TrEMBL record:
Name of the protein described by the UniProt record: Uncharacterized protein
SUPFAM superfamilies referenced in this protein's UniProt entry, alphabetically: HAD-like, UDP-Glycosyltransferase/glycogen phosphorylase
Gene Ontology molecular function: any one: alpha,alpha-trehalose-phosphate synthase (UDP-forming) activity
Similarity field: In the C-terminal section; belongs to the trehalose phosphatase family.
Annotated coiled-coil segments of the chain: none
Cleavable signal peptide: none
GO BP annotation list: cellular response to heat; cellular response to nitrogen starvation; fungal-type cell wall organization; positive regulation of autophagy; trehalose biosynthetic process
Cross-referenced Gene3D superfamilies: Glycogen Phosphorylase B, HAD superfamily/HAD-like, Trehalose-6-phosphate phosphatase related protein, domain 2
GO cellular component: alpha,alpha-trehalose-phosphate synthase complex (UDP-forming); cytosol
Transmembrane residue ranges: none
Tree of life domain: Eukaryota
Taxonomic classification: Eukaryota, Fungi, Dikarya, Ascomycota, Saccharomycotina
Length: 757
């Protein structure tokens, strides 16, 4: 598939008033594919200058067949537009914690970060056409997906994070953790370099936002965001071409002449704390110490380029260690470590990769490592092995490299030795596999893999089981024209949000008001069909006149207009409860934060206060345990709820109750009749029993029966409609009884409380 490409990019710092230079900088940045290029200018370009700059950019872009749309940013000191991304986000994504501060400076950086993302959104909205795919790159633009989602709700948005994503335990340190995650979740799909990064991201969405997820998606704001892994590659054909020029060959001869008879180890790294140059030097020193017979035969040529945030401390340390190694193991005619702290010309760089006998990459954390991939291409004919840190995002794809833990200097020293004495056949075998991988998983393959996955994700969502959002005008019209109406509302997750402490989920005055108004209409029969016990329902909803209550999934009923409860399980043997409680207790002791709720008939084990992943794991174990013991012995059923497991007698369930209420329906005059309007709302699997049962009642006109699940449209359900959250439920109830904006006061607290989970 071929695409028309439009590159929307920041110009980068415009370092002087000359628009020509600005444009050249931007063009160079853009054509090098550097996405992390936002920059500012103290001087505002005039319109003429902007046009001039734009023309120059367009000319540059036309040369490689693309279109560049520059984002111009003005005002203040230029570095401000990068500050948050590079001073706060970048270190954290690489597991580096900053010094504690009063946060004032960070706040300013954050505001600039927001503006920076908005500037991109403005530019994209100017040129966007329906059907376009917007592909957002990297950590400078994490808010952009959500800003665009608000402005262009139907846009196709993919995001790729080139950097690592840390464990949620680390990500939580950010004060703006919610905003950043929510920002990313405006995408249809988010790609990461390595599986562990995607796993950490999903875990952060579960733990920080309380969103539901699978191993390949996160449900956010009613949509399913696909999460996938796309390790990036290089333009292998271009490297193969560029490493085979006359200039490179000349340089190769020159380098060999400098180190006759020596084995060359090569390294090229940015001089920051994550590329592991210090670890590499320690390991090399250890190698010299462990294998003295090798010392004179080996040279380490280390190229370094300056870090984003220049680190004088690291530079000093590197120089000290190098001086120490060279002082200890060097001689007048020989220096074991050759350090070149400068950008070398590309021809020299490729020549070095070609003449090297070994490449040594010891990053302690990085998204991907280009040098390792380029080295593999350059070693096509000479087969030098590659030592690679297991902490680089590239490790997952280069499995035929020699993997090391850079913190283990003895281990790395041994690996260096093993590679230097490795048999030629073994080297050739490893290189063949690596070469095949790098030349197959190229940057071109990466682009098409990302885009095809995004397209297929979009296509599958368009045609799959997406449940439409409740058609409120339609429901309202059917309600108006009906006179025998039946309402069935689940409680937790439907009328009240799920919160950490079940007893805290009490109905708001708005919910009570809407229920009261609905129930007071004689044409309406309103029921709460809940897993809660009688005491809870009675205490919080019992005061509403003409409200029917069904507790513990149908074990107890309080009919409309009655004060007394009817126990459907009276004759049922409750001996099973002890066995269930014992098992629940066993898991409670082993799952910190979990607890047992004992009701009259049903028993519930809650893990909403436990670690979400461990809780879910223990729940699966517990469910198996129960199904292998209790359910084979007694006529009871295990149900999976929202962060809970419940056991209750099998013969009562919400489906049976719903069916019964339709069959027993009596009109205003007490005559048996079929309801001509049914609204049934619920959020979890126990409510699916109601939806299924209602579908099967032949007497019901299905066009007048509204089954509504509360949750995202992507949720698997038998309901016909969906609403996002309890706030929307209350809003639609309010509309039926003429209350406007009833959800106003619920909105924020619902969202907030739900996310606390
Ligand atoms: O059926 P509902 O109203 O969603 O309730 C489900 C469960 O929700 C939990 O929060 C309650 O503690 C349980 O007792 C209850 O069974």
């Amino acid at each position: 598939m071929s695409w028309e490409t439009v590159l929307v990019a920041w110009t980068g710092e415009i370092i002087n008033y000359d628009a020509r230079i600005a444009a050249q900088v931007a063009a160079a940045t853009a054509s090098a594919g550097n996405h992390a290029a936002p920059v500012m200018n103290e001087f505002k370009l005039t319109e003429t200058e902007q046009t001039k700059a734009k023309t120059l950019l367009e000319e540059a872009a036309a040369k490689n067949g693309s279109t560049i749309v520059p984002v111009f940013l003005y005002g203040g000191e230029q570095g401000r537009w990068r500050a948050y991304a590079e001073q706060v986000l970048w270190p954290l994504l690489h597991y580096i914690l900053g010094e504690p501060s009063d946060g004032i400076e960070e706040k300013k950086w954050w505001l600039d970060y927001v503006k920076f993302n908005e500037a991109f959104a403005d530019k994209i909205c100017e040129i966007y056409k329906p059907g376009d795919i917007i592909w957002i790159h990297d950590y400078h633009l994490l808010l952009l997906p959500q800003i665009l989602r608000q402005r262009l709700p139907k846009a196709y948005i993919g995001t790729f994070l080139h950097a690592p994503f840390p464990s949620s335990e680390y990500f939580r340190y950010l004060t703006k953790r919610r905003e950043l995650l929510e920002g990313m979740l405006g995408s249809n799909m988010i790609g990461f370099q390595a599986y562990s990064f995607s796993r950490h991201f999903i875990s952060a969405c579960t733990r920080v936002l309380g969103f539901e997820s699978t191993s390949a998606s996160v449900d956010a704001f009613g949509a399913r965001v696909a999460i996938d892994v796309f390790p990036i590659g290089i333009d292998a054909a271009r490297v193969a071409r560029d490493m085979d020029t006359a200039a490179v060959r000349e340089n190769m001869v020159a380098i060999r002449d400098l180190y006759p008879g020596k084995k060359i180890i090569v390294g090229r790294d940015r001089l920051d704390s994550v590329r592991g140059v210090i670890q590499k030097l320690h390991a090399f020193e250890m190698f010299c110490q462990m294998y003295p017979e090798m010392v004179e035969k080996v040279v380490l040529i280390q190229l370094t380029s300056p870090a984003y945030a220049h680190s004088a401390k690291i530079e000093k340390k590197v120089n000290e260690i190098i001086a120490h190694i060279n002082g200890t193991y060097g001689m007048l005619h020989f220096t074991p470590v050759q350090h070149y702290p400068q950008q070398v010309a590309r021809d020299e760089y490729f020549a070095l990769l070609r003449v090297a006998d070994l490449a040594l990459i010891t990053s302690v954390r990085d998204g991907m490592n280009t040098t390792s991939l380029e080295y593999v291409v350059c070693q096509r004919d000479s087969h030098g092995p590659l030592i690679l840190s297991e902490f680089t995002g590239t490790a997952g794809m280069l499995t035929d490299s020699i993997m090391v833990n850079p913190w283990d200097s003895v281990g790395v020293a041994k690996a260096i030795h093993a590679c230097l004495v490795m048999k030629p056949e073994r080297k050739a075998e490893l290189e063949a596999k690596l070469y095949k991988h790098v030349t197959t998983h190229t940057i071109q393959a990466w682009v098409s893999q990302f885009l095809s996955k995004l397209v297929s994700t979009l296509a599958s969502y368009d045609h799959s089981h997406m449940t439409p959002v409740l058609d409120r005008p339609l429901m309202h019209a059917k309600y108006k024209s009906a006179s025998r109406r039946l309402f069935m509302f689940d409680y937790d997750g439907t009328l009240a949000p799920i919160v950490k402490e079940p007893s805290a989920a009490i109905p708001t005055p708005r919910v009570l008001d809407a229920l009261e108004r609905l129930a007071s209409d004689s044409r309406n029969q309103v029921w709460i069909i809940s897993g809660r016990d009688q005491a809870f329902l009675e205490q919080h909803l019992g005061g509403i006149h003409r409200l029917g209550l069904s507790a513990e999934h149908g074990c107890f009923l309080r009919r409309i207009g009655s004060d007394s409860w009817f126990n459907l399980t009276e004759t049922f043997d409750m001996g099973w409860q002890k066995d269930v409680i014992d098992i629940f207790q066993y898991y409670t002791e082993r799952t910190q934060g979990s607890f047992v709720e004992r009701k009259r008939a049903a028993v519930t084990w809650h893990y909403r206060r436990a670690d979400p992943e461990y809780g879910a794991f223990q729940a699966r174990e517990c469910q198996n345990h129960l199904e292998n013991t209790v359910t084979s012995k007694y006529d009871v059923e295990v149900m999976t709820g929202k962060a809970n497991l419940e056991v209750r007698p099998r013969f009562v369930n919400k489906g049976e109750i719903a069916k019964g209420l339709v069959h027993e329906y009596k009109d205003f005059d007490g005559r048996a009749a079929t309801p001509d309007f049914v609204l049934c709302m619920g959020d979890d699997s126990t409510d699916e029993d109601m939806f299924r049962a209602l579908r099967k009642v032949d007497a019901l006109d299905q066009d007048c029966s509204f089954t509504v699940t509360i949750g995202p449209s992507s949720k698997m359900t038998t309901a016909t409609w969906h609403l996002i959250d309890p706030a929307e439920v209350v809003k639609s109830m309010g509309e039926l009884v003429g209350l406007a904006d009833v959800a106003q006061e619920m909105g924020s607290s619902v969202v907030h409380e739900t996310r606390l989970l």
